[in-house]
Amino acid sequence: MKGFWAVYRKELHSLFASPIFYVVAFIFLVISGYFFYSAVAYFNLVSFQAGRNPAVLQQLNLSNMVLRPFFMDLTIVFLLVSPLLTMRLYAEERRSGTLELLFTYPVTDRATILAKFSAVVTVFLVVLVGTLPGFFLLEYLTDPSWKVILCCYLGFFLLGSAFMAAGLFTSSLTRNQIIAAVLSFGILLMFWIISWMQSLAGPSLAGLIQYLSIMEHFDTFSKGVIDSTDLLFYILFIAFFLFLTQRQIESYRWRG
Amino acid sequence: MIEAENLTKFYGALPAIKDVSFSVDRGEVVGFLGPNGAGKSTTIRILTCYMPPSAGTARIGGLDCFENSLEVRRRIGYLPENVPLYGEMTVRGFLSFAARAKGVESAQIPKETERVMDVCALTSVSHRMVSHLSKGFRQRAGLAQALLGNPPVLVLDEPSIGLDPKQIIEIRKLIQHLRGEHTILLSSHILPEVAQICQRILIINKGRIMATDTPASLTNQLQKSSKILVQVRNEDAPLGSLLKDLDGVQQVVPRDDGPGRFMVETDRSRDLRPEIARFIHEKNLELLELRMLDLSLEDIFMQLVTEEMDESGVPSSSLPESGPGEGDGKQDQNVQEELAS
Question: What ipTM was reported for this prediction?
Answer without folding.
Answer: 0.87
